[in-house]
Amino acid sequence: MASFLLQHSKEFRRKLEDSRPRLYRMAFAWSHNPPLAEDLVQEALAKALRHTAQLRDIKTMDAWLFRILANCWRDYFRRNRIMEDIDDLNLTHNVTPESLHNRNEVINEILLAVSQLSEGQRQVTTLVDLEGFSYMEVADILAVPIGTVMSRLCRARKTLKKLLVKTQTCRSEQPASTSIRRVK
Amino acid sequence: MKDIDPISDECLNAFVDDQLGAEEKERVFKAVNDDPALGKRICEIRALQEMVKHAYQQVQMPERLADAPRQCRLHILWPSLAAGLLLLIGAGLGWVGHTQLGSGSQLDQIVVSDATMTLQLTANKLPTQQPPGVILHLNSNNPAKLVATLVKTEALLKSYARHGKPVPVEVVVNSKGLDLLRTDVSSEVAHIQALLARYDNVSFLACQRAIKRFKYETGTDAKLLAEALVAPSALGQILIRLQQGWTYIQI
Question: Which of B45, B56, B233 lies closest to A25 in CB terms?
Answer without folding.
Answer: B56
